[in-house]
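Let us begin with a simple case.
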Amino acid sequence: MELLYKYARIVPFCPFGASGFVGLGLFLFPKATKSLRRACAILSIPSLSVAMFISSNLFWQQIVGHLTYQYSWSWILNNDISSEAGFLVDPLTSIMLILVTTVGIPVMIHSDSYMCHDQGYVRFPVYSSLFTASMLGLVLSPNPIQIHVFRELVGMCSYLLIGFWFTRPSAANACQKAFVTNRIGDFGLLLGISSIYRITGSFEIHELSERFHGLIGNNSISPFFANTCALLLLLGPVAKSAQIPLHVWLPDAMEGPTPISALTHAATMVAAGIFLVARMFDFFEAPPFTMNVISRVGGATALLGATLALAQKDLKKGLAYSTMSQLGYMMLALGIGSYRAALFHPITHAYSKALLFPGSGSVIHSMETIVGYSPDRSQNMILMGGLRRYMPITGTTFPSGTLSLCGIPPFACFWSKDEIIVDSWLCSPFLGWIAAFTAGLTAFYMFRIYFITPEGSFRASNTSSYSPDSFTNNTIRGNNQQESIHQEVGLIPSSVWGGAISEGSPGKTHISDEGTQSDRGPTNYSRKEDSLYPKESDILMLLPLVLLAIPTLLIGFIGVPSPQTETGLDYLSEWLAPLMNPSKGNSEGWLEFLTDSIPSVTISLVGILTSFLLYGPLAISPREPEKDIDPIAKGSSGSFSSFIRDWSYNRGYIDNYYDIISVKGIRLSSNYIYLFDRWIIDGIVSGIGISSLSGGEGAKYGEGGRVSSYSFGSMIGIIPLLTVIIPTYKNDILSIRIL
């Protein structure tokens, strides 16, 4: 058994080795590596499968023995500071290892088909494998320093993947925004780690937590300083898990390829912040004020994310705000001390969101051949509709993730979200109202996405404008010609198409204003019968959807009380027993559990019904597909629906505030500093130089070369000098004469 635990170090090295091998080949032998692009990309799947196999064995050993194994060796050692590196295997680690690997493999399979025609196809598995390896290394880390190192690797990989299509300005800006925002959090995290080591003298999580509790209990440190250290440490998870006020990078991260959005939102980057708070939960629990801050930040994030998702037109951004809201639920659960629910919800949410993002990728992949490769069109839900008719497998699996996020039994998120809502009510009625109201909003906007996208009628086509001659098999060049062809075959109305085609994703085919093409090869437009409507994706894109639909339906039952367990608790409580108080496990019976969940399910059903009345087939508001299908977006100026639309489209105006305070404020202060430096600092230095030059030039003209003139001038200068010196030193001169 000990040998198996020692193999845990291999887990992050499996995907890291695949990433390094392909990346090195791409650097040293680019042509040969690109010629074997499919083989190089597929290498990432078996490497992650090996990691999953080892993780599964570790998880099984944790179930059987509940052992905690830590292996470490000296890393930094001197008289002032000492730190160790190694790995820690406990129930939390084993659960996260299973989560990352089981979500990562289906996403890798999906991306193999989604990205296979992209010119950066080989780069993508290099980045994504390194991304997964960094997260695996993070969850195995036994101390904050090592966690910080792997967090930086996760941040670097997210920068590379969000900006994967870096020639597109929006993608380049998005990756920089994510990088800068997370650097703010990492700076606070580093300050927090340094402060904690200063007062506890240890980097080991369990040891520093015990010492921190002792210092607070003995009043050895002031509560203000203790909370300051904890809040600085919290700044890292706030940025990484997109909590208020450092959430602004998350929707822009959708500029990256869709498969990486699934990894980022399901099991890697955004889960890193929640994992850190869970790993150091004993530390954060010591100062009560910090726990209150965590719960309030989580509740505010959950509510804000839900409101921002209400009127989004971009499919991926709607799901991104959904992730932000669910991350708020997790942070809220941690803040109120509901440790089990806080770890249960990341599991259920990961599989649900891992199903929804590849599903949206399948939809976008099919829409691109119809409306073009620009995200403004291929991800625009206004141009979708009726996709379940043309994409039956995608349209069937998508509702599973939707129902799960809405908290409808028996899907996964129902079991975890309901527990968070109940615990919130028990802790604070204010937080309970926020959690319950957010659940209703979640059901509303998720079914809004469902009714607009898979249901209804397909809105990107206008069959009445069909002409038998309206097709071509050649590459279309030029913006005007592209638009006219689409108008002829009735792909989309010209009012919707508007704008240049050159906004398309650099990683995919699009037509630029100069008539050139991007990486993905020529665009072929076939007859209307073939290209006017979307088609179901291939088997490699559909297989992950089917696989992920299974845990989306069943994984929630690990949190349901079972008579099969020794203590009568649920399986999750049994697994987490070494990390939590067993009395906090769920020992309710099925009937009692379902009875307690009636209020939360009712709230979700009200949200679904409201969405059905506005967006369903029997919507009470008449819609005009060629203009806008969204009743909220059509609200008159000054109405409540108009306020919701503006609030959602403008991201709650928070980005505007950041732009005014940070961007414009820094530029304005930089201009003032520049003027001060130019006119004051440089002016003093330049003034001294100019005065010296002027004095020298003036003295030059006073030189005649005659000694008598110089003597006369010297005498004239000495006389005033003597008139000043003699009165001042008169007494001294008299005393000298007397002596």
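The second case is a distinct protein. As before, the sequence precedes its structure tokens.
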Amino acid sequence: MVLSEPYWDHHIPLPKLGPLHSRLVTAFVALICFINSYNGDFVFDDSEAIINNKDLNPDTPLSNIWKNDFWGSNLSSNSSHKSYRPLTVLTFRINYLLAGGLHPIGFHVLNVALHCVISVLMIDVFAILIGSLVHDGRGVKLNLSPKASFLAALFFAAHPVHTESVAGIVGRADLLCALFFQLSFLVYCKAFQGGDKKFPVLWIFSSILLCAVAMLCKEQGITVLGVNAAFDILMVCNLDIYELAHRLLSRRKSADIGGLVSSGLLMRLALLFLGGSFLLYARWRIMGTGPPSFTEVDNPASFAENVILRIVNYNYYYSLNAWLLLCPWWLCFDWSMGCVPLIKSATDWRIVWPLLLWCCLMGLVYQALCSQDSNKRRTLTFGLVLLVIPFLPASNLFFRVGFVIAERVLYLSSAGYCLILAYTVGYCSCHWKKHKRLLKAATLTLLCVNVARSAQRSQHWRSEQSLFTSALSVCPLNAKVHYNVGKNLADRGNQSAAVKYYREAVRLHPKYVHAMNNLGNILKERNELEEAEELLSSAVHIQPDFAAAWMNLGIVQNSLKKFDKAEQSYWNAIRFRKKYPDCYYNLGRLYADLNRSIDALNAWRNATMLKPDHSLAWNNMVILLDNTGNLAQAELIGKEALKILPKDHTIMFSLANVLGKQEKYKVNTNFFPCSAAFCLFCALAAVLYHRWGKLDLAKRHYELSLRLDPNAPGTKENYNMLKRKLEQRQRTVG
């Protein structure tokens, strides 16, 4: 392969650094862009993928990560998203083990480190794509485009669109996928060391194996095989696509197929095709029940009945993705639920953007195919290959995706944009020599702005409060943004402010059942029961299998004394969610209010069977049995509960009350396996004895509690009060 050094490389306004120094600078830039996210919280999707994902727990069998999806749901379940990323989940599990629990700092540090490594490896990828594969006499690969590859890698390291992948822990999937994507490509290139096109089959199998690893991190990894194939055709075999197409269209003698066969190209492409087909088949089999199902709010364009409208809106989405690469200022954690209204007519001015996008792409394609400059053709072609091919799984062309725009899917595609941008800087520097200082200042300014924007955006990702509120100015029509702001406010105790955002979410999306449910809960707590009932009734009418809304509706109806309706609502909740301990608990409360003691006990027993540490259910059983005079049974239930919850002071207090009524004043320490629990029991027993007038026993238990814990809250004050009472009684007797 005889390819010349890019003539424009030395015109790029950057100092020429050695391989080590350029890598260190790139890593440093990547680090300063996102380092301020290292001690951030778990935010947004992290709660489902990490906090609530049982596959991270060391007590869960390791084999589960190969059976469940990215979110911990079984792949065979109809509710599964079918996102099969076991190696990513495995890294989360390792983080959990090393940190001894769910401590986000370790998760964030690894994400930032991965981005630094990927940015450094991009220098090698760009060097090959810009300057080709050239080795010296010792087989060491030469970088014929040191400045261009360095600049492109800097653009990649500092691009703000990467913030979601780096600062959001769930973005680990994109980072790992990109890492093994790069390794697969570099291994494929390694096969041509020395210019031998008939490389050992071992190299191509190694590349396919790394592609499989990338797929086990995220599905997008399969696209590296397309990049490898394009590299083989365009660079290794130096095939001129324009000339080949021209010959075929003009019906002249076509390309020499025999030459392609002798070069081994067809064999390599066949192996790539067979390997990719096998991986896709295996991935399809793993999905089990077929592709995931998404709703209209996830991807409204894919539900448009008119095919033309669907195509127009897909292209509008592509133009928005391109704009995020060009001007990554308007970034948002979620682009669904009305954030991007559909284009529904030809008079919508936004139709200009898809047209502009395709004009730009056609211009780039023309330059990539028809330019007389081989360096330009090569660089622009591979820029387009890297830009388009990794984006294909998110394009809706092959299957419906579950989002409108997702910044994380641009992590790999941004490499193609950075390559084209670096070429643009080099081309302008070469042809506009009179403005070299201006170009240098512009390039430096662009890098600094990107670094500052990345640092600012990663600061947003440090907490849910800052992340959600930052989206209000970007996507004010997004109901999910308002919902998440409201939920965050409610979680922090500011329910009055939360109501405002929940109401706005429901206004923007009148069928947003989760916003209705949460708003109904707040109104219930504020005793605005009629409106709460109306909201929750609407929610279950829109989504009849919404178990949580059925339960909350039952609670409201119970408060409104609509007992029959409340009972029916509770049973509907249980019908749609078989294992629902909280619903059984609330059903038991309803039965207790109706004096249906046996039904109440059965409901609470079901709650404790489904959730053995359900303290309220245990305590209510003890109290109900106590109130109905079943003291012996109440004692048994209380002791059973303390075996499971030995530190629960409410159960201890209820049990102590039962024991006192039976005049069983002697403490059985077998039910209090730890000293703290025994100390608490002594304090509670002392209070009860004090209340019952058994002052000597109360004094003994106060003293015992204070010996175990001299700083027990309230105990010392009660003990002093008792002593004064005893002294007063002695003076009266005397």
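Residues 533 and 553 are 6 Å apart (CA to CA). The mean pLDDT is 86.
Keep these points in mind for the review questions at the end of the chapter.
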